[in-house]
Amino acid sequence: MLNKKILLILIFIFLWSSNSLAYKYPFTKKVDVIENYHDIEIKDPYRWLEDYNSKEVKEWVEEQNKLSFEYTKSYLYYTKIEHKLKDLWNYPKYSVPKKKDNYYFYYYNDGLQNQSILYIKEGLNSEPKILINPNELSSDGTISLNKFEVSHDNKYIAYSISKSGSDYEEIRIRDIETGMDLMDNLKWCKFVGIGWNKDSTGFFYNRFPSNQETKESEVNLDNKVYFHKLGTNQEEDKLIYYDEYKREDSYFPYVADNGKYLFIYAFNSSSSKNKLFFKNLEKDSHFFKLFDKSDAEYSPIEVYNDILYLKTNKNAPRGKIVIVNLKNPQKEKFKELIPETEDILYEADIIGKHLVVSYLRNASHKLYIYDLEGNLKKEIKLPSLGSVSNISGQKHDNNMFFRFNSFIQAPTIYKYNLKEDKLEVYQKSMAKFNHENYVTEQVFYTSKDGTKIPMFISYKKDLKLNGNNPTILYGYGGFNVSLLPEFSISRAFWLELGGIYAVANLRGGGEFGEEWHKAGMLDKKQNVFDDFISAAEYLINKKYTNNSKLTIMGGSNGGLLVASVMLQRPDLFGAVVCNVPVIDMLRYHKFTVGRYWISEYGNPENSEDFKFMIKYSPLHNVKENINYPPLLVTTGDTDDRVVPSHAYKFVATLQEKYKGRNPILLRVETKAGHGAGKPTSKVIEEQSDIYSFILKSINFDLEDL
Q1: Are residues 463 and 550 in the same domain?
Q2: Contact status, residue 383 vs residue 404, Cβ threshold 8 Å
Q3: What digits encode the pLDDT tens for the residues 653-664?
Q4: Do 519 and 616 reside in the same domain of the chain?
Q5: Annotated catalytic residue: which of 68, 116, 271, 556?
Q6: E strand or H helix that includes residue 238
Q7: Is 311 a member of any domain?
Q8: Is 674 a catalytic residue?
Q9: Is 556 among the residues known to form the active site?
């Protein structure tokens, strides 16, 4: 009996000591950097990690990756997870067809191709042919096709490509009949708009100065709109619009009504507010400034018979549609066509001489048909609670296409004939996932200040809510972005495992209009964190899960969210996945496009903004002697939107200050940016690592399923 007790004690001591060991992290040097913010000294010992292209930083990243991969790939079921994800991914995927006269353009991926291929066919039922195959542009699939615009005579297609996930785009022109590219090659484009002129001899586009034309400190300033004539060098492009007194403005050109009107969006932040100019290309030499103040959203829907249909939230935070007679565009001639409603105006287009309008109601879509005088004609009944996207059609064509999906229903492409009032499935999803075995419910929980917050919760129908289910809680909460019911292959994998997937529609998003957005920005940012914490507490209190089985996940601004929440409530979570995060709130605006975010976050160089930003800035709120949950931070080494140094400095700080037994890991994808255009092979590998990290961290045994 005594020997048995001693044996049990020895086993307990062994297990306790092995679990208590802190991870041996790579050495990270510290530098003596101190900055003064409004008479407060702030240390920045890992400033050197901002030089993410240096040899020293790259070597440090290699060591961090080694540790991260050792953790994830040592999970007993890693190979099983990878094979399952690859199998789920391997099915044909189609995009909504885009019609141009009698031609249809669409993307297709046979399953595991790194990049989807752009096809063209003449007539809906004709044989398609490959127009652009981005998989031929690089051996590893890291060159992606971003956007395209077809000339008015259907002879050329201007398309942009991106390398290694960069926001920078390169425009090329292809002869549609021959499939050959012209010699034209336009660089230094970012968030580019392309608009062909009426005779298809060239197009309008926007770009930044080249590296040779500007100082490093002034990158992302001086965006300009040019006209490029086919067959000429970029240096010969004609400058169309630039305001030397507003160097921080960026522009997006848009051509409407078959090349008659050129519109220019002007914006200097990531908010939905913009200025809007236009000119009649057939007769005007100068732009008419419809809206010369960035005080609201002004988004052209389409021009029909010289009438501009415009989506705006000016004096209507939930959105409305107005019309402007472009022959007499004085503001007193503006007319409200569809007034603001209780729902949120999301998207609108003119198809078949009607307005097709989608609204958000409690973070899911409703779809309506109006006539051009603003009279409601019909609601198109959607299959279930879900989201509509990629509405496509022509002004004089009765057929329109759109994509519908939900958290548990894979994307289905529908065709609707406005004249016959006929809705039919055009392309059914071939995903290997039976949505009938799952359920999504929408709940409304109470946040810290009493605000009701909606949350979608998806799981297997026969799942027992016993407080012990592995659960992922996802959030974003910023930039007027709405988290809508959308299908995800990796989410389908999690649900098949028996996991719960919850998405909280936090303040800061656009689910309930501009007022909802404003309630989660600037000095009200803490509301977003409180909303997310309350969502986690709801899931625990209602017996969906418990804190040891609850993982939180978010990317970009959502990475800021989960990092901040982890630091504020480390006791609440079993694991944290923080993707491409914004972390250093005192320096974020100094990198790439960070200055655009000042309207959302604030400017730390302003003393009043600094007071609330320093309170939640993740880099500056890591504490010692706190038992933080297991953390995986992911980023891309060529991310030029949220630079990887945010992730680097955060991980270095946590690895220095946290001495507990939970892992603090950094996963850096090579030749990858903020996420867009990432090849399928890299996505599957990354998701395999993420889910292995989660399941290992919450001690989940796949053999139990």
Answers
A1: yes
A2: yes
A3: 999 999 899 999
A4: yes
A5: 556
A6: strand 238-241
A7: no
A8: yes
A9: yes
